[in-house]
Amino acid sequence: MTPELRPYCLVCDAIALLFQPYAEVVLHDLATETVVQIAGNFSKREIGEASLLSEIGFSQGEAIIGPYEKVNWDGRSIKAISAVLRNADGKAIGVLCINADVSDFHAALRTLNALVRVPIDADKPESLFKEDWHERVNEYVQQWTVARGLTVSSLSRNDKQALVIALSADGAFGGKNAASYISRILGMGRATVYKYLSQGSAP
Fold first, then answer.
1. For the stretch 115-128, what's the b/e string if a residue is b when 16 or more beta carbons lie within 10 angstroms of its beta carbon?
2. How sure is the predictor about 123, in pLDDT bands with cuts at 50, 70 and 90?
3. Span 3-107: which CATH code?
4. 10 Å Cβ neighbour count for 142?
5. Most buried of the four, 75, 107, 119, 168, by CB within 10 Å?
6. How many Cβ atoms sit within 10 Å of the Cβ of residue 7?
7. Structural domain boundaries of the chain?
8. Residue 128 pLDDT level (bands cut at 50, 70, 90)
9. What's the predicted TM-score (pTM) here?
10. From which residue to which does any coiled coil extend (predicted)?
């Protein structure tokens, strides 16, 4: 191994240890074009084997290559990035490759997408939502906050007062126990809701 590459062996070990079991780090020596260090090995490569740097499109003028995609021997998806290592004179002496196994994350994304996806042509059942004022209140609050760049949890006292008045103007308090429900979702007492309502209706 080129002596100047030895300190990078510890870097390889540290990265692989931090992200185990999802990261493999491979150090290539350009003097011999061989693999000189592998940490977190899941590619079944071996120290001393040919680097095959053409696989990552290595050229002398590059510094960072990637990120790019690869496929592991077992079919798992790999996201990789490579860094060209240079000595004090600027000469390229090695390439450090970090391979991240992202297969589990892809699987998790597919599961999440399946859970949250609703068919495009799926309408809300009219019989279920026809009289559901809870749903109408929820949608109104969501639209009101989004339009102002807010969230329910971040509403100030003045924001809540303005929202209560806006809900009242749109008839949201017509449902039975609506005041109690609105007070709960806005995190304040029912008496405060009635106070805001009285202030909003005052001449």
1. eeeeeeeeeeeeee
2. low
3. 3.30.450.20
4. 12
5. 168
6. 9
7. 3-107, 121-201
8. very low
9. 0.59
10. none
